Amino acid sequence: MTLFQLFFLVFIFLVTSIIGVVTGSNSLITVPVMLEFGISPTDAIATNMFALIFMSIGGTIPFLKGDILKQRQDIPLLSILTVIGSILGALLVLIIPAETMPLLISVFMIAVLIFSIINKNKGVEKQEKSSPLMEKIGYFLTFLLGVYGGFFSGGYVTTLTATFIGCLNMTFVEAVAITKVLNIFSSLIATAIFMSQGLVDYQLGIILGITMFFGAILGAKWALKMSNLWLKRIFMITVIILAIRNIIGWF
Question: Where in the cell does this protein reside (predicted)?
């Protein structure tokens, strides 16, 4: 890898980490760029996942000062479901090509967009507690998305954010904060499996990870200053762009 390519990767990872704290879907941009620079698909996914650990930690730190993370009593359950799913997902990377996954996640993104348009107040205003059925659906989707998060991660946080808002009646800022915590577990588990297979480029991963750490801190501080309405607008715009991009790229 040339010095120019390294600087370009650092720039891409910095920008996506700042914005991705709110929107997610970093890997839908970062992994393809790594592939363009000649990094193999499995190595790109593994090294990107390693860097995401730093981003998730950086994105969580600003939220620790407030009460957002203290108000949810189901974070331990969501974490356990994420860990189990991530283990299964990381094992799938070793046997299933990941190139076709962005198409599936794009379909889900379009569904998220339609749901957000129909339910204007979801995620913007504080909602009543979800029904037992919707909670069960939300927990089940958390597990399934944990599998995907360990497998590829591109669009994982985006769809998880939508699940928390749609099924567990979280506001956008709550969902953004909690998905950062869960992504720490998801990335750690997946990376541990990748490391055991010798797939992580540690030198590149540390450089990109430090970049994402500081980018995520900036992004999280920015998110805390914004209203849920603006977070929703940014989220929806990103979903539209990424869904169209991935569908066109797949075809």
Answer: Cell membrane
Tell me what pLDDT residue 106 has.
65
CA dihedral sign, ordered 157, 84, 215, 123: positive
pLDDT at 70: 80
Q: Which of 3, 178, 176, 166 is nearest to 82 (CA)?
A: 178
Cβ contacts of 242 within 8 Å, gap of 6 or more = 25, 28, 106, 109, 155, 158
Determine the Cα–Cα distance for residues 102 and 153; give it in Å rounded to an integer.
Answer: 10
pTM of the predicted model as reported, rounded to 2 decimal places: 0.81
